[in-house]
Amino acid sequence: MYETIRVERHGAVAKIVLNRPERLNACPPTMAVEISDALAMLGDARAVLLTGEGRAFCSGADLATTGKRSIAGGAGSYKALTESYNPLILKLSRLPVPVVVAVNGPAAGVGCSLALAGDFTLAAKEAYFLQAFVNIGLVPDGGSSWILPRLIGKARAMQMMMLGERIGAEQAEHWGLIYKAVDGASLADEAMALATRLANGPTVALGTLRRTVAHALEHDLASTLVAEAEGQLKAGDSADAAEGIAAFLAKRKAAFTGT
């Protein structure tokens, strides 16, 4: 169905695999559009797992790509960002289900932005994160200039963006850039276990939580308190909330259905 990605279903988890291993999963605009399309067709999936095929997660935008969605010069980059990459990042941020990213190798350029776009980013210890833009005379994109200072502070964000140096997975975990660095051999299993755990959780509450945190990053405390109350109203009326409370009172494990 897709040329640049592969979509799999594992129970309630939708797994999206960047599938251009011969190009280190370099991401042309077409790939961004295909990921967006896959995200729009999640159906009853209750979590998303994003990873790469082969030895890289994503080596960045594919500057060698030709065709109607190619990147050529500033105007080409602007068009690709506004029509393909930026809509993907926004779609990921607005999903009603949790997103886990398994970084199996280098995550560079817009691939770094994509790697950090989930709720949980796990990375193989041999993986690294690279804001490669400055090395080719460009500026960060894909939301990097927004997310990096919020994750690791301005000083470390500027280090990544202005010096264009690799940040290894273990250093990334130490900085708080990612959730966890794990042995490469166990990355796929750990990521799937986490995605499955989230998929088995109270989906309405988790989706509402995502929106509330996104709101809080842009608004003041007073506005966020209102957003929390409105979120609690929605989550509190869900079947999963009723089940969670009943399970708590009965001292048993809740069996959430995602409704």
Please explain how this structure is put together.
This protein is 47% helix and 15% strand. It is an alpha/beta fold. The protein has two domains: 5-199, 2-enoyl-CoA Hydratase, Chain A, domain 1 (Alpha-Beta Complex), CATH 3.90.226.10; 203-250. The protein has a six-stranded mixed sheet, sandwiched between helices. The chain has a three-stranded mixed sheet with strand order 5-7-8.
SSE series:
EEHEHEEHEEHEHEHHHH
Domain module count: 2
Overall average pLDDT: 95
**Can you list the strand order of the major beta sheet?**
1-2-3-4-6-9
- Class by alpha and beta content: alpha/beta
Key terms:
259 residues, alpha/beta, 2-enoyl-CoA Hydratase, Chain A, domain 1, 2 domains, 6-stranded mixed sheet, 3-stranded mixed sheet
Short description:
This protein is α/β, with parallel strands linked by helices and 259 residues long.
Strand and helix map with partners:
Layout: E1 5-10, E2 13-18, H1 29-39, E3 47-52, H2 73-93, E4 99-103, E5 107-108, H3 110-115, E6 120-124, E7 128-130, H4 144-163, E8 167-168, H5 169-175, E9 180-182, H6 184-199, H7 203-216, H8 221-236, H9 239-250
Parallel strand pairs: 2-3, 3-4, 4-6, 5-7, 6-9
Antiparallel strand pairs: 1-2, 7-8
Helix pairs in contact: 1-2, 7-8
